[in-house]
Amino acid sequence: MKSMPDDVIKAENLTKVFNRSLVAVDHVTFSVREGEVFGFLGPNGAGKTTTINMLITVLKPTEGTASVLGFDVVKQANDVRKVIGVVPQEYTADEDLTGYENVMLCADLYGIPREVAKKRALELLELVELTDFKDKRVETYSGGMRRRLELACGLINRPKVLFLDEPTLGLDVQTRAATWEYIRRLKKEYGMTLFMTTHYLEEADALCDRIAIIDHGKIVVTGTPSELKDSLGGDIITLAIKENADVAGIIQSVENVKEVRKEDGSYRVKAVKGEITAPLIIEALRKKGFTVTRLSLTEPTLNEVYLEYTGRAIRDTEESRAEFMAQRIHLRRARQR
Amino acid sequence: MNGAKTVNECQPSFVRGLWALTRRELKKWLNDPVMLVMFVLQPLIWMGLLGKSMNIGGLFSANNINLPQQVPIPGTAILYPSNLPGVVLNGTMLSQMFAEMGSKIMEDTFGVADYFSFMAVGMVSMIVMTTTMFSGMSIVWDRRLGFLDKVISTPVSRAAIIFSKILNATFRAMFQATVILALAYLLGLKLSDTFTPLNLLGVYAAIFLLGVGLSSVFIAFSIRSTRMERPMQFVSLITMPLMFASNTFFPTRLMPDWMQAIATVNPLTYLTDAIRHLTILPMDTTALIRDFTYLGLFAAVLAAIGIVLAWKYLTR
């Protein structure tokens, strides 16, 4: 299969079924263009990591095909492996080795000429600001440092495509922002194509050129963050009234209002030009004798997009950390059986 | 961006990948001296307690027989010449005769006069077995920690991934065997007259073959496993029968037939036999050729199976 020159990653009906029953990825079709940052956004267990694992040749697809830079991920797996870099979700660096030793281990696995590898390892450690710690054992590293080390390892072969699986999972807000900065710099300095997964909306919004929202193993919608926001058809006005009555009809009759939904005591109104429409709604309600007690206007964020397309807030899928870890371990096992 | 042209400078080589992965494991191992000591302690305790307490040779020694100075034999016990009223024997001499017969029995049974030497070599086999099996378990860890997935996503040879595990297990076994042999020598292992330092090379070769064979079995078994419990169960299930249905502690000749049958196919028997012939027994070329042939076949067949399974199952 010859792919279009500008499609770096191409997946067609990519499917993975575990144990003949658990459909983790369900006929997913998408393509990633050269030089863009493409994000898979979805809750835990949506099939993001499974998709990445198929693209990086760790898992074999049950059905469908995928190619990276024109190489088939099954038939030409070894060619794919040479041109990609992988930054896994877990901290995979060896704790008993130093940062430098870890990067060099990766270089050995790729078979990068020794002299080139040594020079590049130092360069990369410099890039991720680990030079001062390069001879310290990884067990002394913090979460953020480990993540950066993974980044350095993933870049050792100067990959054309870099896969980042949940690059900021479990990091605090500051470290997360710093990691975003590294990713932006990588994209700029190396001109790589990036494929990343995340369940943080802000992250997808901040980093990705295009996003695919994935839920229950299926892609629900694909587009640039602003396309997705625009597709909602306007701003969101949330309001509540003092009286106990259904005023959805009144709001609906106001100009520019596209949709009204009643949500536990308040109204969620979708409207074009929210800043003009909101006063009109208040006016219309006052005329009928109702008093607006509370009103807020939000321009659509990915959160709204997410809510719109999956029917639930992404926050709902974030449980306590313990539950989350248990689920991760569970999933990891499920994936591996 | 055409798939046909070479895209970068990666030239993954089997040897380099193998060495890098093996070195990683050895470094990890050397960084953990506590584990190292534990692994040596276990067979040392066995060797010290079992080997020294089961002093089979001592049963027949002059000290143990302790006959009185004079041993009277009543006339009724004497068949010929008849009508003797009885004799009195020199007890000390009699004890010595028994002791000589004792060491003859020991030598006929164990090949050497002292049981300690016999079982100390058996201990080397035991440590080779346990070390190779347990270190094969590290593949389960690598899978759980995600390291294995990362390695699989690089172009390194799949065979190198498996062989690094095998080599690492085997190197460890060789190291521990050296420690055990040295300790056994200090505790009184008696080397045969035909022993030369060159024989040690043969010892290492034999250990290497068994290590490769056993760790291949183990890795093949645990390659898909994500939990430690299953391989652990497997190890504890298999080690006892392998150890006792072999010549590790006792010559197989005196075992019941069904046990002898197991011992004959048990690779541990051949390793122990080979090391004994190279160290404490007089060199027997025929026996050594048989032992090495068996160990060689064992290693080759199982390593081949291990590699095939690796190819099939590393990528799920």
Which key features would you list for this structure?
heterodimer, A: 337 residues, alpha/beta, Rossmann fold, Alpha-Beta Plaits, six-stranded mixed beta sheet, four-stranded antiparallel beta sheet, 12 helices, B: two-stranded antiparallel sheet
Roughly how many Å is the radius of gyration of chain A?
A: 23 Å
How much is the average pLDDT of chain B? 84
**What is the correct CATH architecture of the largest domain in chain A?**
3-Layer(aba) Sandwich
Mind describing the biggest β-sheet of chain B?
A: 2 strands, antiparallel
In DSSP terms, counting alpha (H) and pi (I) runs of 4 or more, how many helices of chain A? 12
For the largest beta-sheet of chain A, the strand count, sense and barrel status come to: 6 strands, mixed
Oligomeric state, counting identical vs distinct chains: heterodimer
Q: What is the residue-averaged pLDDT of chain A?
A: 85
Segments of chain B where pLDDT lies below 50 for 5+ residues? 1-7
So what's the overall shape of chain A? Answer: elongated
The CATH homologous superfamily name of the largest domain in chain A equals P-loop containing nucleotide triphosphate hydrolases
Question: Helical percent range of chain A?
Answer: 25-40%
The share of residues in extended strands of chain B comes to: under 5%
Total strand count of chain A, please?
Answer: 14
- Any idea of the CATH class of the largest domain in chain A? Alpha Beta
How many domain modules of chain B? Answer: 2
Q: Distance N terminus to C terminus of chain B?
A: 28 Å
Spans of chain A of 5+ residues with little confidence (pLDDT < 50)? 315-320
